[in-house]
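> call design_seq(struct)
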């Protein structure tokens, strides 16, 4: 059975004090015994303290990026070993902001995937089409190519460590969400694509999250679709009440 997951991508928000405050609110407000897995991804400098802070809870901590090399002269970068050494065992890769603003290519993301998996990390692999691709009807092709070029080189056994996050770029931070039908249509296509490239077992077991302007008022309907296994949340993850409402909507 695949897992239900709600992950909050905090992007470049929240200093040390604010991180602690938001975590405290989440600890207090997320109901005990919920079945879905909850993950937060604060900035690099606050990861170690977040891990400590959440040690007695079921809330997981993810990094927003990792460098592909084991170490070396890469000023400003963070390695997988550094992350796992402070207890961070999950990483978001291929986010559209990394692709667009920091020019991360499919090939680069593929090498980051390899490094993360080598360190036994779980990868939340993000991908999704831009508005022009959807308008030209090319969105299925784009998604298939991103999956093939960034992820499908992995071995079948590694799928246990992979979570997919379909995030149409036109819906990220725009307030515009894919309709539940659009999300379901794409998620079904993604599962089918994984099935063709790997197996029915892999396709059935991989969690596929939707991301892009998920809010308390649209989460329930999106999460009710059979191939949507949760969400990757940006803006709404920064307010405890909104994030908790999304977490409980699943
Ligand atoms: P958003 O961001 O929820 O603010 O649209 C989602 C994301 O970037 O993962």
């Amino acid at each position: 059975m695949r897992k239900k997951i709600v992950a909050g991508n905090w992007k470049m928000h929240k200093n040390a004090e604010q991180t602690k405050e938001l975590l405290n609110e989440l600890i207090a407000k997320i109901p005990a015994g919920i079945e879905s897995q909850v993950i937060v991804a604060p900035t690099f400098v606050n990861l170690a303290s977040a891990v400590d802070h959440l040690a007695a809870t079921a809330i997981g901590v993810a990094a927003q990026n990792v460098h592909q090399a084991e170490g070396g002269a890469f000023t400003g970068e963070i390695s997988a070993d550094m992350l796992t050494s402070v207890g961070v065992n999950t990483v978001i890769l291929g986010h559209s902001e990394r692709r667009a603003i920091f020019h991360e290519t499919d090939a680069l993301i593929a090498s980051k995937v390899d490094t993360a998996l080598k360190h036994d990390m779980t990868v939340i692999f993000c991908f999704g089409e831009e508005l022009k691709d959807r308008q030209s009807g090319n969105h299925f092709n784009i998604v298939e190519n991103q999956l093939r070029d960034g992820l499908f080189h992995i071995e079948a056994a590694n799928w246990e460590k992979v979570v997919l996050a379909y995030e149409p770029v036109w819906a990220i931070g725009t307030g515009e969400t894919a309709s539940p039908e659009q999300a379901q249509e794409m998620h079904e296509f993604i599962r089918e694509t994984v099935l063709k490239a790997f197996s029915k077992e892999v396709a059935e077991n991989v969690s596929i999250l939707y991301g892009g302007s998920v809010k308390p008022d649209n989460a329930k309907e999106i999460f009710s679709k059979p191939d949507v296994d949760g969400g990757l949340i940006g803006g709404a993850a920064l307010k405890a009440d909104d994030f908790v409402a999304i977490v409980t909507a699943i």
